Amino acid sequence: MAHGLEIDAKGVAKMAYAEREIPWHRLGVAMKGLQTAEEMLATAQADYDVVTTKVAVVDTEGNLITNPDGSSIVIEDSRATVRVNPDGSFDGLATVGTRYVVQQNRECLDYALAIVGASKGDAVVDTCGVLDGGREFFSSLDLGGLVIDPTGINDKIERYLLVRNGHDGKTPITFANTSIRAVCKNTVIAGIGQAPRVFTARHTRNAEHAIEEAQKVLEISTAWATQFQKTAEKLLTISVPQASTQLTKILDGVFPAKATDTERQKRNRDGVVALVRGVYDNEKNAGGYGYNGWSAYNAIVEYLDHYRDAKADEKALASMSNNSWVTQKKITAQEIILSLA
């Protein structure tokens, strides 16, 4: 599978990602946790400027062809997009129409933050990268692992808001609410193809005024951000000591023992519970955030998404689906923990 990522002169892929999950291609720069748009753009080398220029005629050797009087031969009904590099050099990207208006990568990412009601300083950017020699840009905003109000409006919200921008005259500005994490060309295409709702805007002077329309098309209410914060804060206030009846109640509810279980099934279930207790203690959970409902919830999510005995692709698919048994267990865990308040 070709990743399509641009590789710099030092052999580093122009991509940054939250280190919680390593991309399949194992390229790019790992970041500790979610980051701000500014930090991710800089690390992915994606915060470059693109300008439009007139198109002059050159020969097959790249030499400028001029008229007898020395003037350039310009194709009037065409323009070129050109990347301005930090070292002062330029890269020609594509030819576009005269009405084409450049939308910088940082602008598109800012639009995405506005769509979901996040600020420029919020650490919500999960991935960020450059494709096809700078002709395309992508990013994924993490809308949160919690399944909040599963029977209300938020059951429509998938995990990521995928952002795509093109400087090739063909790729529109695209926002898609999807369950697929964008890490390469193929996952960008798959994420957009799988998304139940996609918003696109052409590169025109009206593109920046499309945020309100995008919110309607994507059915993303900025209220989700406030609700997510409230739920997370509530979980943080619920005390769940390691050796406690509270933790036992949570684990018994998510991984129930059955009267019909065989001895082998009982041992397997006990092993799962012991493993989750161990994950609960690590620095990503109680070791970093204390023994509370938030840490307990994330320990269960971490086990289901990464530690349970299953093939990597099966775990990934189950975690991405809102209808999978894995998602249902996450909902169950959240409901049980909140009931302890």
Write out the strand line-up for the largest beta sheet, numbering strands in chain order.
2-1-6-7-8-9-10
For the sheet with most strands, the description reads: 7 strands, mixed
Q: Could you say which overall geometry the principal axes of the C-alpha atoms support?
A: elongated
The helix/strand order is: EEHEEEHEEEEHEHHHHHHHH
Low-confidence stretches: 146-156
Fraction in beta strands = 15-25%
Would you report the number of β strands? Answer: 10
| Count of distinct structural domains | 2
Compute the number of helices.
11
Helical proportion?
25-40%
Structural class: alpha+beta
**Termini separation (Å)?**
48 Å
Mean pLDDT: 86
Radius of gyration (CA) equals 24 Å
Structure description:
The chain is of the alpha+beta class and 341 residues long. It has two domains: 1-219, no CATH class; 238-339, no CATH class. The protein contains eleven helices and ten strands. The protein has a seven-stranded mixed sheet with strand order 2-1-6-7-8-9-10, with helices on both faces. Strand 6 and strand 7 form a beta hairpin. Helix 5 (223-237) packs across helix 9, helix 6 packs antiparallel against helix 11 and helix 9 packs antiparallel against helix 11. It is elongated.
